[in-house]
């Protein structure tokens, strides 16, 4: 079929009329809203690789379903430790659990005490946009505005975000907030979470052609997709189960 180029704007599902592949139709979770084009080979912007979501994970055209080397021990550990919170907030915000887990693995390797300081950091209070604590590495400033209408009595700061359930809640809310730009399309979710939106970046080494850090590389989306597919391998094998994923 012809190449489907999504672009950075929302409303892609309304512009591109596609039918679900036979092996997908009837198997999608009713709680997750994903447009049909995500299950056909497509790109975010022209010139890069094409991909599609399927029952085995994210398939890259001419490359297949890429995974990390060896057994999927990291995603298994993260699911064992935090699966309850992942399912809880996935269901609450309508975000596929696979996206939350892959984001955790990519951002912090599943370490809830990880803190990243950006250049220009002075203090948590003075530069909350320069510090990302916790499992999902959400900036304190982002967490504050994401949770401002959630009736949370506690101060949204470093200590709050270092609690795994809180970090997962904010990260899931942020992924849901970006859905208009990402359509829950895994590589676009990865790049939007990392770079703030789905933005074209045409560096020769960047096969996804979406901005991510380090700029000009495919590194962030590459890591995300491998963790994402590791999780799918456990779902397919039956080693783990989720009621909040893409598929029933």
Instruction: Please give the radius of gyration in angstroms.
Output: 17 Å
Distance separating the two termini: 27 Å
What's the pLDDT, averaged over the residues? Answer: 92
Q: Hey, roughly how much beta strand do the residues contain?
A: 5-15%
CATH 2nd-level architecture of the domain at 71-239: Orthogonal Bundle
**Lateral strand order in the biggest sheet:** 3-4-5
The major beta sheet can be summarized as: 3 strands, antiparallel
Helix content: 25-40%
Describe this structure in words.
The chain is mainly alpha-helical and 248 residues long. It has a domain at 71-239: Lysozyme. It has helices at 12-15, 73-93, 97-108, 140-146, 158-161, 164-177, 179-182, 186-195, 219-237, and strands at 4-5, 42-43, 51-54, 57-60, 64-65, 115-117, 131-133. Strands 3-4-5 form a three-stranded antiparallel sheet. Strands 1-2 form a two-stranded parallel sheet. A hairpin with a 3-residue loop joins strand 4 (57-60) and strand 5 (64-65). The chain starts with a strand and ends in an 11-residue tail after the last helix. Residues 8-17 have low confidence and may be disordered.
Strand and helix map with partners:
Blueprint: E1 4-5, H1 12-15, E2 42-43, E3 51-54, E4 57-60, E5 64-65, H2 73-93, H3 97-108, E6 115-117, E7 131-133, H4 140-146, H5 158-161, H6 164-177, H7 179-182, H8 186-195, H9 219-237
Parallel strand pairs: 1-2
Antiparallel strand pairs: 3-4, 4-5, 6-7
